[in-house]
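Illustration 12: Alpha-ribazole phosphatase family protein.
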Amino acid sequence: MTMSHNTTTFFDLIRHGEPAGGPMFRGSKDDPLSDTGWQQMNAAITDEDQWDLIVTSPLLRCRAFATQLAEQRRIPLHQEPRLREIAFGDWEGRTSDSIMADTPEALTRFWSDPVSYPPPGGEAITEFRQRVASAWQHWQRQATGQRVLVVCHGGVIRMVLAEVMSIPSERSFSALNVPYACRSRIRVDESEHGRLSCLQMHGR
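Figure caption equivalent — predicted structure in token form:
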């Protein structure tokens, strides 16, 4: 008689805190966290939190906090380049207000349907989702049975949750609010019936 083999993996996704320079379309622009951003991240983590592994975007606003936490708690740390934020092209470094002043319809269309109306010169949503999904699949295999903290970006979290919850790419940006230092917990169960993932918690 064969024994069934079930494993459960937990992923805690956390968005970076406020970066230096204030709100803007940052994308691949590599700003560090502000003092407020550090406070937000430290407040979002508790002594009760326990992880076996930390995975981080290579961008400084994620990596610096992930590195500090990994050193403090002696947890293995992996940088995952596929978890960097979407590249916003011509919008990088600009605020919503400045884009609205120039091309208001462009921003409105992007939020309602980013697939059809990507940022000018930016990364296509379909390609962004594909690279995030490939990282997500990889770490589900790599970290089976462990508790994993993923330090990443608002866009990345939206893509992972879109995969878990089968949200179409057209709705992926507008369907979820992901503020600074927002945490999401995903439970992944694997059995002889396959892999089942569900969102257990989302918010601050």
